[in-house]
Amino acid sequence: MDFLNAMGGTASGFFGAVIPFLIVLSIVVFVHEMGHFLVGRWCGVGVHAFSLGFGPELFGFNDRYGTRWKLSAIPLGGYVKFHGDANGASVPDPEAVARMSPQERATSFPTQSLPKRAAIVAAGPIANFILAIALFSGAIYVGGRYETPARVEAVMPDSAAARAGFEPGDVIRAIGGSRVNSFTDMQRTVSGAAGSSLTFTVERGGETRELVAVPERKEDVTPFGRHRFGRLGIQGPKASEAKLVHYGPLQSLGLGTYETYFVVDRTIDYIGKLATGRESPDQLSGPIGIARVSGAVAQSGGLAGLVGLIALLSVSIGLLNLFPVPLLDGGHLLFYAFEAVRGRPLSERAQEIGFRIGLALVLFLMLFAAWNDILNLGASWGARGT
């Protein structure tokens, strides 16, 4: 009986994670590919297929323009295949283009002008950023935000805050010149700045002064894996002091745009620290980790939590696709930049080598992220056991 209950719990946990994951990822991928599709259509490029997922087709239909809309078996991405593409990654097919009639070449992706090709490629990541801004802004407008004053209630002994000279009653007005509106704003900035020097503008007794602190690096093992963050060592106001603040449409849009910028800024900061050896790559996550987070958010945060996760993942995928790696959108844009400078495209051989290198890098990153997910899964199970 215990074995059956355990198996039932495992199955329930599996489907409770997979279904939210598929919903979240499918929405983000659909919006990304729709960006490519719409701008491609507006530029007069023919579209052979719009696929949600990879691999064998499960079902689909043809629209009146001849585009095959389909759902494929491997739900870990998607693609738009334009006329003249060799595959869904928009790798050009020179032989096929050479055999085309003038009418066919006019609707082929590789024969479009450089500005049109760049616009079509950039439209996917841009669509992801627009989705994130819309979701963040909509959530703020509909639900408002709980905010507590950025006031110091207590300072932990022998902490970064104590060494910097913080005192109870201090009100934090800005960090590094950027305005702080709430204690949550302060926490988010400090959390992402472990080991970095931060300048705090505080108000004390009617006077303004500046304090410099270096948040200490801490690590927790959570159900989502290892989480490293910066800690200042102060306590803020009680939760009972939090006030629900509602914002108008323009204010919500501004805050939603800032949320998107914040995610981009933190991601780029992490990558920079990773490249210089100041961060560990073990926080990179793949489909397994995203699925676990999706399931946990669906159970604890409900619809609002999933909306936030979709926005967060949309920013991440949009930014990832802008990396200058062949096969990704950023790699295509890099090739186009070379073309603009040289006045002609890179040779077929150079592009082929680039795409092969890009494929190897993408596969390596996927395998490395999956390995991290497995290690984090084991760490979280170990934490539960203790």
What does this protein look like?
By secondary structure, the protein is α+β, with helices and mostly antiparallel strands. It is built from 11 helices and 12 strands. A 4-stranded antiparallel β-sheet has the order 6-5-7-8. Strands 1-2 form a two-stranded antiparallel sheet. The protein has a two-stranded antiparallel sheet with strand order 3-12. Helix 1 packs across helix 8, helix 4 packs antiparallel against helix 10 and helix 8 runs antiparallel to helix 9.
Mean pLDDT over the residues: 83
Helix and strand element order: HEEHHHEEHEEHEEEEEEHHHHH
Strand portion, in percent?
15-25%
Main sheet specs: 4 strands, antiparallel
Identify low-pLDDT runs: 1-12
Keywords:
386 residues, alpha+beta, 11 helices
List the helices and strands and how they pair.
Elements: H1 2-42, E1 47-62, E2 68-82, H2 94-98, H3 102-106, H4 114-143, E3 145-147, E4 154-155, H5 160-164, E5 171-175, E6 178-179, H6 183-191, E7 198-204, E8 207-213, E9 216-222, E10 225-231, E11 234-235, E12 243-245, H7 249-275, H8 287-300, H9 302-320, H10 329-342, H11 348-385
Antiparallel strand pairs: 1-2, 3-12, 4-11, 5-6, 5-7, 7-8, 9-10
Helix pairs in contact: 1-4, 1-8, 1-9, 4-7, 4-9, 4-10, 7-9, 8-9
In short:
This protein has about 375 residues and is of the alpha+beta class.
